[in-house]
Each structure stands twice: as C-alpha cells, then as structure tokens.
## 1
Amino acid sequence: MSPTVLAYLIYLIGMLPIILIVGHTLHRHGRLFLLDLFPENAAIADRVNDLLLVGYYLVNVAVTLILMRACQSLTTYTAAIEFTITRAGLVTIFLGALHLVDVLTLMKIARRGRSV
C-alpha cells in the first residue's frame, strides 16, 4: 500500500469518530442552551438543535474531504503521518472557529430577544 493511500485511510478512519463524537456532544449540550434561548417553545429549540447538527455534519464532512487531497503524491510514510496530522489539525481549528461563531451568534440573538 502506498503512503498516500495509507494516509487517506488513516485520515478518514481517524476523523470519522471525532466528527461523530463531537457532533453528538454538541447536540446533547446545545439543547439546554437552546431551551434557554426559546423558553416558551421546546419544540423549536429541538428543531433548531437538529438543524445545527445537520449543518455541523455537512460542513465537517465537506471540509474533511476537501482537505484530504494531498498537494503531491506522498512518497514516504513520514510524509503520510505529517499529512494526516496536519489535515486533522486544520479541520479541528476550522470547526472550532466555526463553533465559536455559532455560539457568539446565538448569544447575540438571545441578548436581542431579552432586551425587546
């Protein structure tokens, strides 16, 4: 098996559990935050939470697949490991920043709703 194929396999196998575990955790804990944001209507909070989870999965899968492409063929196993670690780190940083933007947006909406 070539180092490039090995890197792709390790990257995908490694990213899948991270995507699923983080998505599940955000969905579970995000529900409480959204119930506070929509105190009169738990059904809306649950639907928004579900939509955020779907968006999370779509963006995460897209970023993971886009960043999977290597700039050139990897010729050594060391390069394959470096590729895998770098790409996983980039996905994690991007999604962490995206999550921060989501939380700040929801907090802004919550403040605006309480001041009206």
## 2
Amino acid sequence: MKKTLYIILLAFSISANAQRPDPAPAQSQRILIMNATAHLGNGKVIENSAIGFEKGKLTLVGDATLIRLDKSKYDKVIDAQGKHVYPGLIACNTTLGLTEIDMVRSTVDNNEVGTMNPNVRSIIAYNSDSRVTPTVRSNGILLAQVVPSGGIISGQSSVVQLDGWNWEDAAYKTDEGIHLNWPRMYVYKGGNSEPEDVQRNKIQKNLNDLQLYFDEAKAFAQNASTVSSANLGANSKLTEDQNLKFESMRGLFNGTKTLYVHCSYVKEIISAVALADKFGFRLVIVGGTDAYRVTDLLKSKNVAVILGRTHSLPPREDDDIDLPYKLPSILAKAGITYTVSTDGSWQARNLSFNAGTSAAYGLSKEEALMSITLNAAKILGINATAGSLEEGKDATLIVSDGDVLDMRTNHVVNAFISGREINLDNIQKQLNQTYETKYGIK
C-alpha cells in the first residue's frame, strides 16, 4: 500500500513540475530545408537536397545541385548542411496515449472488460496530454497506431499524429482495423499444467467459438435491414436488429478495415491466414515470430507482418541466437511487407534503434528505414499521404544531426507534422537540464 501511494505521489509531483509543450499552430510560412542528406523513405537518397513545403504539403523534393531555386519564394530557409532529413517515423502496435504509468491503474486505459469487444474504439481513450508522447517525438516518431488489448477481440485501432490539443486533433485515420488475439494453439507440458487432452479440447472449443462469432458477424453484415452505427445518434435507441459489436465488424467484410491478428506460433499464423482467406479479410499478423517458417504462404496471400522488437531473445532454445535481428531481412527477401514495432508506450522511442539493428543483419540502412516509414504506412493504409518524402504528401519529417538508426549519433533537431514545427522539449530533457544545473555539470 505504501509503495503504491509513493508511486502515485511521485507521478503527480513529476506531472506538476513538467509542462507538455503546446501543440503547434498550422503552418503559415513557406519553409525550405537546404543542403541536408535526404533519406526519402522509399529506398532513395539525395545527398544535397532541397525540400520545400507550404500549407502542410511537400511542394519540392529534389537535388539542390540540379534544380533552379528561388529562395525568395520561401519565408524561412533552414540550412541543414551536414544533417540528415527523414520522413517522420511511424510506430505500429503501441499503447501511446492509453498508458501513462504502468504501475498506476488509474493511468492505464488500454484494456476493456469482456472477451469480444470489436466495438471498442481506442481513439476516444487517447490522451493527447500524455507526458510520454513528447519523449517519443524527440526520437523522430511522429505518427503512431494506438491499439487496444485484452480479451479475444480487443477492439479498433486508430492512427494518430503525435501533436494535438485533443484526440479529434490527433486523429489521422480512425478505426482502421480490428485486433484479434488468436487463441493459443500449443499444449503446455510438465509442472502443474492440465492434462494434454483437456488443453486440446479447450483449444478446439476456443477456435470453434471464434469461427461461430465470425459466421454470425458475416450474416449480420449481409442483412440489409441493419443500420450503420454512423447513423445512430446520441439519443437513438437500439432495435432488435442493431448490434454494435457486429456493426463495427462490417468494415472487415466490405474491405474498409484490416484484421490484425496477434499471434507468433506457426500453427496460429496458418490458422489466422485460413480464417482471413475464408472471409476475404485484409490480414496483418502482429508478432509473427514464426513468420519466417511460412513465408511462401504469407507472400501468396499478401499478408503483411508487424514484427515485435528485434532487441529480444529467440523463442526456442534451438533457434539461432540472432534470429530476432535477422528476421526482418528474411521477410524482406521473401517479398513480404513488414514493419518493426516495440509494443508498449514509452518503449516506442527506441523504434529506430530496433530497425537499425536489422541493418546489421542483412538489410541496407535504407531498407531498415523503409520498414518504419513507407512499409508501416502501407500496412496502415496511409501511404498516400505519409511514409516517404514525395511531393504532394504531408510535410511530416524530421531533421537529425546524425543517423536516426544509430542510438549513438541520432539527435533530432527539427520535426514537422503536416508542416507544423513541433516543440521537441519533454520531461526527460527538463529533468536532465535541472540536475545538470544542480550538480554544476554545465
């Protein structure tokens, strides 16, 4: 009890002293970034670049030595000589804005009661005042997929931009997918585990129940008498043929939503692919530790994968010790669209470094960068406006003194979300400055 009270008081004291930077106003000036090495996110690099943007959109992406530039057209010119420009990094499968302090229950809002909750919307629980978000932005993550957890069907995820007064401002793409935690399909042996036949019966029952649930959802989606949940006003009353749980799954059947299946074991992956194939869902595997065992299947069914952290141990005793490091390379060579994730909330700040590790195990640095920019955008269905530096796309980008994939040299000095220049201050920087002053380090 005393420990819990101490943690709560500590959290409040930190919150009271730390100020979240105000969200940036809409872009009003035409901005030009000159002379930086531009990593476009699509595998291409421009050594001496000129990048211009206005009204939140990229209007110029080119080689400064090959184009005629009229700097007078721009209100602000940033000389980024010796620096690097990247698209804003995209973090998939996070609880950013849903979890503040893991050990303080009142600040954790990522898990709903119940087992089947496709109607739960993570976006309305997103806390734009989170003190965690600015620390993540400082390492270049500007867009994130906010994902619910718990139960079998956890709910709907949304993509947010990490700067806004409220969740409506932050929303980039809402309710873009439904998350399913696939029932366990392996048997525990030894210890106090249940008899194997009992475990197998439970596994089969779970799979049968899941299959029945999707069959019922499909029948509901095909029923022309149902009413779209978008037409249900605040004072509307549900009738017998209106079911918000099934209504929220309609997008899976008409192709407007993605089914994200959280699983890692090879049998689970195969079963998830079979389910998605039966109903015609767009499928993304989340976790996918065993994805390298079924690359042909994933490729043939056009299934993307959101991998977990590369900075982890292999799942089996006889696996190669460096399997997590080289798994991105294996999927890339198989032609599978994938991205790297770090799970959690504050852990997302290390996203680029996890991707950077894969560059030492079979990928080029530009391929590793692509995995957390354009690849992630494709998986989330936002690649028309985000994920790479191309004219016409949103001006969501970062400028770093060093290599964004290298924890030793990365230092983000400028960040823009849709052309809005973001304040990169955060609580960790404030505390660092406070104690440097206190102990006379500077």
## 3
Amino acid sequence: MKNTNYGMHDWVEEFPGAVTVCDMEGIILEMNERAKATFSKDGPLIGRNLRDCHPPKANAMIDAMLASGEKNVYTIEKNGVHKLIYQTPWFRDGVRAGLVEISLEIPEKMPHFKRS
C-alpha cells in the first residue's frame, strides 16, 4: 500500500517549478530543489538576503512588495525558455510574514480561456 503520510511541505520538493520563500527582512528561509538548482551558481542562498542577489531596480521592487503586501506577476524569456514569475506575500496566523516566489516554465504560446 502506498504511503500517503506526507509532511506539510513534502510536495514542494519535487514541484515542477522553483519555489523560494523569504521573511519580512528579505532573508531566504526555504528553497525547493528546483530553486536551488536554478540559482546554484550563486552558492547556497538559504540564510542570505534576497537583496544580495538582485540589482537595485529589483531591490526597490522587493522593498515595495514587503512594505505594501502587493503581488508582482509577470512573464519572462531567458535563453529561449518562457517563465511565469509569481511573487506574492505569504502569511502566518493572518499576519504577512514575507514573500514567496514561484517560477514556472510555460510554453511560448498557450491557450487562454474565458469562462463565466
């Protein structure tokens, strides 16, 4: 019989996208295996500040998101790979506790459906 006794966060380790979590100071708390592989050239990042890994314009965006609780969602193309980047606050006991970034590879062209 298959073991379905998973821990709270076990699913995220093999999630097919990069997941990075930071606290309200910008300190990286968690990264799944995909995120670690994506940023491996930067060395171990858990415990470091997000701002150490970004240029000033991105740091201003990080500061604004941490201060306001606003999300930031966009798509990018890098080396021919298209990605959806979704950066949003996460909460602990109803209080904003930091940011989570989810990065997913997406096809160059993908269907869009309107439903009502």
## 4
Amino acid sequence: MGSFKHKLLAVMQHVVIVSQGKVLLLRYSAYQGQGVEGLWGLPGGHYMSGTPEEDLLREVREETGLQLEQEIRLLKTYVVMFPDGIERYGVFYLCNLGNQPEPEVRLSEEHTDYLWVDRDYAGNSISFIGPYHKKIVEDVLKSV
C-alpha cells in the first residue's frame, strides 16, 4: 500500500462589495511582506476559525472598518498554487449594498489605499494581486 502524502491547503475568502454599481478595491501595503505591496485586491483573507461567514465579516471589519449587514452570497471558487508551495482554495462572495451611498472606508495597516471602480475603470492600469481577482471584478461590474 502506498504512503499517503499530506497536502497543505489554505482557504482564502474574498468579498466583492458593490455600492451604486461600483466595486471596492484595496491596495496592499508592505505589511504582508510577500511581494504584494502596491497590488490591488478585494477585502478578505485566510479562513481561520469560527464559521466561514463570521470569519469573512471579521476580516472585512478589520481591513475596512465596514460592518456588512446585507446578505452575502457565493459567487465563485478557485484553486491556485502559491510560490510557497501551499495550495490555496479561494472563495469569492458578493455583498451588494444597492444604491446606498458609498460607505466610509477606514483602512488597516494591511492596505494603503482604496478605490470604488465602475465599468469604465481602466482595468489594464490596475495591477491585481491575481488573475482571479481581476476576472471576478470585471464579471461583477458587467452584471450590475
């Protein structure tokens, strides 16, 4: 019988927050220390404890100061191998705030800037943390 080879897996969760037809993007600081400084992504992070939704809402509060009370629904999943040899399973959720004014964002030290982008944003001039982030943002903006 062959030996079982344990495979490391990390779960990452992200939420696409939409307000007035715009999506919230966050720019990473050097805080992570993994070559992501200056790249853009979505609020979220690694799943750590509790229920996935509670963990995601905690990450959003920590990173943006936003207290999301609207329904969060599953959009898409993906799997990607990072250079550190750990495979990441990613989950994207959607939280649509409707026509409410864009909420005030208070960034943590993990990010340096934020943008609310609409369909007309210059997607090619924004460097995303990964291709999945860019694709999901473009898909959501086409549908709102």
